[in-house]
Amino acid sequence: MGRYAARRLLQMIPIFIGTTLLIFLMVHILPGDPVRAIYGDKAPDPAQIAAIKREYGFDKPVLEQYVHYMLNLLQGDFGKNLAGRPVIDLMSDAFPVTLRLTLLAITIEIIIGVGLGAWAGLRAGKAADTGVLIFTLTVISIPVFVLGFIARFIFADELGWLPPNVQDSTSFSQLFLPAFVLAMLSMAYVARLTRTTFAENLRADYMRTALAKGLPRRRIIGVHLLRNSLIPVVTFVGTDVGGFIGGAVITEGIFNIQGVGNLLYRAVQTSEGSTVTGVVTVLVLVILLINLLIDLLYAVLDPRIRYA
Amino acid sequence: MPDVTKAQTTDEALLDAVAPPAVEVPAGQDEKKSDKPRSLWGDAWYDLRHRPMFWVSSVLLFLLIVIAAFPGLFTSVDPRDGDLVNHYLSKPELTHFFQPDWFGYDQQGRSIYARVVHGTRASILVGVGVTAVVTLVGALLGMLAGYFGGWVDSVISRLTDIFFGIPFLLGTMVVLNAFTERKVYVVILALAFLGWTSIARVTRSSVITAKQADYVTAARALGAGTSRILFRHVMPNAIAPTIVVATIALGGYISAEATLSFLGLGLSDPTISWGIDISEGSKVIRDNPHTLLFPAGMLSLTVFAFIMLGDAVRDALDPKLR
Amino acid sequence: MRGARSAKWVAGAIVVALAATACGGGDDTGSDDMNKGKADPNGIVTAQLSEPQNPLQPANAKESQGSRVLRTIFAGLVDYEPGTGELEYVNAESVTPNDDSSEWTVKLKAGWKFHDGTPVTAQSYVDSWNWSANIKNNQTNSSWFADIVGYEDVHPEKGDPKTDKMSGLKVVDETTFTVKLTQPVSYFAYKLGYDVWAPLPEAFFKDPEKYGENPIGNGPYKFVSWEHNKLIKVRKFDGYKGPNKAKNGGIDFKNYTTADAAYSDLRSNNVDWIEQVPTTALTNYKTDLGDRAIDQEYSAVQSIVPAFYTKTFKDIDPKVIQGLSMAIDRETITKTVLQGTRTPADSYVAPGVLGYKKGALGDIVKFDAAQAKKLIQEGGGVPGNKIQIQYNADQDHKPWVDAVCNSIRKSTGVDCVGDPKPTFQADLDARDNDEVKSMYRGGWVLDYPVNSNFMRDLYGTTAAGNTSGYSNKEFDELSSEADKASSIDETVKLYQEAEQLLAKDMPAIPLWFYKVNSGQSTNILGKIPYGQDGDPIFDQVQVKQK
């Protein structure tokens, strides 16, 4: 297992370099001059702009900038944004917020998703199953931003149960609504996935064996069925982290949350290359590590899988 | 786009974890329904015809395509024509079917009904366009990687990993930010830029399964050329999972376009897009929810129809799930 | 009506405000009377702010958020009287020109001190200006010093600076220095009200970076702390000698990222002042707030500008542009789509600025579809019969651009569509590189309250703010004559003549003047006074005794 993990880690290196290079190129090929934009409608000063660009190294070829960036990165230096604030500071402000939001969302996603899915799966083909199917299809069909506006309109503005904006990102009650909106879509997928695997595994041999052994129904479902059905769900939740970050751009925007999504959205809009590259680099790293973790988790959940 | 990535990742997960590729089930095994052996496709069609979901979504989609192709049949009002003096944010008249004031007017005094009708084309074009590009590119790369293996596979697979590594919505935002004028084809290409990876992965794995089949070995033994084996034997038997993923993702792309338009990075003027209208409507939702609800409802209905179709197709092509 | 829902979060807060007058109506109750009660000289005012984008240091404060804080910490040489735009001395005893306004003598009031106890001297100003102008220090406002002799030496167009001192600045004694200009500028003293001309203490030059996080000024408030993305605190400086001593104990600038969040806090009295009512609440805020609502014009104008290098507007008959201007129903659009946040423009110059003349542009800005059509026909029509209005989609411009286009389309038959650029950068790029397709959105907020700022800096042939390719010799001559005029009154008058020249040529179609739509909490005594720049005069705000 250790060797397997080491090999996987080594394989991650080219992917990591490729991904960061790709995002670096994408950001730097963008039109629009972030330095010029500081001046807005007012008169720009070409000489000053050139001097600022020299300071940031924007006058060098892109590949040279990339190598330079990566070398600094290895020493833990993410560079500065155009206002002179270290990108690492911006990220250490934003990441904990998004982490809280995402964890809350994943919890909601798993509890409701697995619950609904299991319920439908145990009653495959019955009315409950169809009901869950239609519900999940509907949720999947409504884009997150529409869902966000509607949820806020109903729960915050009309009913007044929850605050419409997040001022304090450590407050559970303020984060609940955005986390719920963020979780909805994945929750629908988790429900469908759970339903399918449940229905499938119900027909599996080991279930028949367990029944024959006379195990109580609760134990069969709670231990045997659940454990075996959770593998694809875990995979899904893991691969879904990227999707969560995408969703966070929307939810954080609608609910005024100062997280990674908001930081990235603003950075993309203002062509803040160093911030975009920094954040995406960290995200890619996180996603790669989570995928590795999930593969290792397999072995724990499924005794049939052994890594040499 | 969350929708898309999720549609894709789920499906991969579903296909990987739950059901082996449909091709593993040779044609004609369905003994109880017919005495004549049917091909996979015939079997799927038989199955589809008996699904109400398939028919509901087909009728919906047919209607949407007619609206997209001939918006003039449904309204004669110019969707850009606003009358601020008389129609500023007028409320909907829900009984005035197919009239300009059916869905009310927006903050420019324009008929929301006319805008919803005329916005259909862009959404459908983007959805179908992205799916076409993604399927072509993804399937081709996946097939090459799966069939040839070796270094071809290594190169393509790493490339796929790299493009897959960048969060879909964020990457697409960066790409679209580079274009000052975003017509339909620009949005299609931007969404396809990071969107092809799932199709490539799914196709690769089903091609690997298919090429080990006996009939491929047989064909090779009989001296068939590479391209003949690839296109006559492997592809038809490996394409089913690809089609399933593509169909389901289609709805996701439409939703992705709307989300990007909402962020100000999707289609741009003068294209009429539901996403832009939803974004404008969200600013006055407090007293005028109709400005948001009608375009949002139409958008969701369209995505719903495509996802339902994808679902039906998957169930039909994937006998194990029945 | 609880809280509000944000629509879109806009990249940068843009909003500023000016002089406040009560707007009637509302459900004001006796106990809530904002004018009753006693002022608490140590009361703390809480105000909305977004995170400043740059270190807190005067020459780099380009955006409104950093400026808002800096203006409380620093006192400049001069300031402007709200409403009239007349000059007032603050740190300066006097600022006097020589005969042709090419050399100015600044006398400081004696005995002033920075918050760290060091004296404010002529040297503090000269050092500050030299440092800020130096190209090596990368100050975005450096070009403000371009009028001073020796600017090219510290700020060459290419290469390193030859020296770090501008030869035009001379310290005469402890409290006197002279400024030599490359050409006469009769209103130079007016420019001195802007943030960049602030003095800097010695502590700054030792470690500018550290200073930016912990600024030391000479103003009515001293800086206390800056918790990023949360709170900036400033407190009354007891040793302040200026005329504008703080009438409250200090200000807490609370960080908000959306107008919606700030607005809900204002309504629950958690913040005393917000910069702008969110779009989503504009229709209701006057009933929400009663006479605590603030609704007032400020000195900024929005216009659409023809790019004269395009096929459409090359060799155009100005009559056509006049026609387009008359095809825009400014009244209706400001009332509906813009929800009363602007008032129709009647001049190139915004109100509250020296030389603003009501109705200066006469009928050209009045909506008259028939006359518009006629003028366009007489002028030979719009080539291609189509115009596009370029704007940046990252701010809330789309609604009014759509409305303007619709108005033009309907009343003249000229096709008109918006041409959105995704970001402000892309928008500016297209303007700088002469890639605008036919027209673009223009906006101008005053730098200093003289009408020249709204004309020479935008429509002069060589003006940096002129990106439309407009050039009119007559106007250029008149404006340089005006700049050399013996008195500011004369300058203003000549510029008013120049405005009539522009009206004939139409280098831009003025649309509307900006307004502040804001509010104050019940903790505040009286109406919050606003300055010329559209921000509150925080030192004059009074807090009710509890």
UniProtKB/TrEMBL annotation, chain A:
Record flagged with keyword Cell membrane: yes
Parts of the chain that traverse the membrane: 12-30, 101-120, 132-155, 175-193, 229-255, 275-301
Superkingdom of the source species: Bacteria
Subcellular location: Cell membrane
Boundaries of every ABC transmembrane type-1 domain copy: 95-298
GO cellular component: plasma membrane
Keywords, comma-separated and alphabetical: Cell membrane, Membrane, Transmembrane, Transmembrane helix, Transport
Stretches assigned to coiled coil: none
CDD domains given in the database record: TM_PBP2 (cd06261)
GO biological process, one term: transmembrane transport
Gene3D superfamilies: MetI-like
SUPFAM superfamilies linked to this entry: MetI-like
Topology versus the membrane: Multi-pass membrane protein
Pfam family, one: BPD_transp_1_N
PROSITE patterns: ABC_TM1
Family: Belongs to the binding-protein-dependent transport system permease family.
Protein name per UniProt: ABC transporter permease
UniProtKB/TrEMBL annotation, chain B:
Start and end residues of each ABC transmembrane type-1 domain: 120-310
Subcellular location per the Swiss-Prot or TrEMBL entry: Cell membrane
Annotated transmembrane regions: 54-74, 124-147, 159-179, 185-203, 238-256, 292-313
InterPro entries per record: BP-dependent_transpt_permease, MetI-like, MetI-like_sf, OppC_N
Membrane topology: Multi-pass membrane protein
Domain of life: Bacteria
Pfam families attached to this UniProt entry: BPD_transp_1 (PF00528), OppC_N (PF12911)
One example of a Gene Ontology biological process annotation: transmembrane transport
Keyword annotations of the record: Cell membrane, Membrane, Transmembrane, Transmembrane helix, Transport
GO cellular component term of the entry, any: plasma membrane
Family of this protein: Belongs to the binding-protein-dependent transport system permease family.
Protein name (record): Peptide ABC transporter permease
Organism ancestry: Bacteria, Bacillati, Actinomycetota, Actinomycetes, Kitasatosporales
Automatic annotation (TrEMBL), chain C:
Family annotation (Gene3D superfamilies): Dipeptide-binding Protein, Domain 1, Dipeptide-binding Protein, Domain 3, Periplasmic binding protein-like II
Span of domain Solute-binding protein family: 92-465
Any one Gene Ontology cellular component term annotated for this protein: periplasmic space
InterPro entries per record: Peptide/Ni-bd, SBP_5, SBP_5_dom
Molecular function, one GO term: peptide transmembrane transporter activity
Signal peptide location: 1-22
Protein name per UniProt: Peptide ABC transporter substrate-binding protein
PANTHER family cross-referenced by the UniProt entry: ABC TRANSPORTER SUBSTRATE-BINDING PROTEIN, PERIPLASMIC BINDING COMPONENT OF ABC TRANSPORTER
Keywords: Signal
Alphabetical GO biological process terms: peptide transport
